Every structure is written in C-alpha cells, then in structure tokens.
UniProtKB/TrEMBL annotation:
Name of the protein described by the UniProt record: Deoxyribose-phosphate aldolase
Keyword Lyase in annotation: yes
Signal peptide coordinates: none
Family recorded in the similarity comment: Belongs to the DeoC/FbaB aldolase family. DeoC type 1 subfamily.
Location within or outside the cell: Cytoplasm
Amino acid sequence: MKRSKYIDHTLLKAEAEKTDIERLCEEALRYDFANVCVNSYWVRTCAEILKNADVGVCTVVGFPLGAMSTKAKAAEAAAAIQDGADEIDMVINIGELKAGHDEAVRADIEAVVQTCAGHAVKVILETCLLTRDEIVRACALCAASGAAFVKTSTGFSTAGAAVEDVRLMKATLNGRCRIKASGGIRTAEDMDRMIEAGADRIGASAGALLLR
C-alpha cells in the first residue's frame, strides 16, 4: 500500500478554525492521505472540499472521554454520517471496561456499529489508561461487536500510542479487526515502528512529516 494511504491526517484541537480545516483538506489532497480526521462540526465542510476525491472524511464520537450515553454516541454518529462522514472513531466507555462491565461496553460499541452500517467504525481504547488485561478484553469486545478497527488513543490523555500496546493488540485481534495507532506519532521512524508492530492505519496531525 502507498505510504500516504496509511495516514489519517488529523486536526481535533478545539481552537481549529475553518481556515485550518481547509488547509488540512488541501494537504490531504496534495499528499493523498487516506482520510482527514476532524471534529464532527467540520464534517460537512470537509465532505464538500473532498467531494469526488480519493480522500475520506473521518470524525470522532464520544470524544475524548467516552463517558457519555450510548444513545448520545449513536445519535452523534448518525448525524456525522448524514453530514458526509465516511469513517467514525468512537471512544470506548473506559470506566465500564475498568469496572469489568463487559456487556455494557459491548452494547455501547454495537449501538454505534449498527448505526454506522456500511461505514468503518474505529474503537478508541485509550491504552495509556488500561492494563494489559484490559486491552486484551477490550480488543475481544471490539471484534465481537463488529468494529472495523481498534485504535490506541485519543491523543488527549496522558500518553499516545506505544509499540508494545500495538503488538499486544495485533496478537489479540489476530486479523479480526485492523489497528489504528495514534497519539505522539511525529516522525517517519515513529510511523515505521507502529507499522512493524502491526498498525494498519496511523493517526497524526503532522502527516507530511511521516512521508519519506
């Protein structure tokens, strides 16, 4: 696969303005990235700019904490798809996972996956807050729920993607879901390490710096 197509070119900062979003889309077109990844407010803007281009629009749901109701996540996802989103990155209910309430976690994911039928859902674990056992359990729940990808991080918590976590996710998933690594991936070498560990997609705010 072409190197640029690993990358979701990302801008999720609260202070992003329309000119910043337009620049993100222009860069995505120039470098032929897989997607832009933006907050849902900007989905319609991106969909219009990228219309008929081979660059998709990805947005986030339940971001960045994952601690809102399942109904709210499903509604947010539905609205984003209506506005033109191609892929949805949702945050898992981290507290319920850590409490061992796996059925609640699974139901939360399934509701968004079902809402997004025909669109890839990536489930963000926030691995920096989880133990190895919790990462393994979360991966199993994502696979059972029909998620397309499991994603390491929001980029807004205590740490981003770690190579050892990507390796663990790869071994646990065994091809049932793809893996997106995100958070703190700033150089081509960082990207190489994540791909070697098992990442199929890279989320990064400095996508051009990851290209050789």
